[in-house]
Prior knowledge:
The protein is α+β, with helices and mostly antiparallel strands. Helices cover 16% and strands 27% of the residues. The chain has a single domain (4-102), classed as 2-Layer Sandwich (Alpha-Beta Plaits), CATH 3.30.70.
Amino acid sequence: MSSITDMVIFMGLYESEAMTRLNAWCAFNDSGVQQFEPLDTDAAGGRKVFTASVWAMAGNYFDWERLAEALPTFGWNWPNEVVLIVDDEHGNAVQVFRASQAGEVLGYEYCNPATGERLLLDPREVNVVRHG
């Protein structure tokens, strides 16, 4: 007998350290030592390069509720871009969780057009001007 939960994590490209921490959490908190693995985004359709990372796991008796609670704690560089999608075979619908706290601005992403470097700017140090 099994209880399968499909889980997908969508995130920006530069989150390998956070994913290492997340998988360490999985190894510590799951007796089956089930972990997420990256999906091959080179197989994505379209004319452009896929510019995000996607990791997945088909967990068996995996405590996904505790993972969803712990999601904000893994030290994401861009938590606003991190989404956990859970499809529990016993649930009624697919559930979606974000690493950022609802309603709280954790940072603003800036991409330097000259270098392509992505930075997360602290919202306390940024003057936001809204046009409209």
